[in-house]
Amino acid sequence: MPLDKVKQAGKLSVGTKQATRMVELGKASEMFVAKDADPRITTKIVNLCRKCGVKVTYVDSMKQLGKACGIEVGAAVAAVANEE
Question: What fold is seen in the domain 2-81?
Answer without folding.
Answer: 60s Ribosomal Protein L30; Chain: A; (3.30.1330)
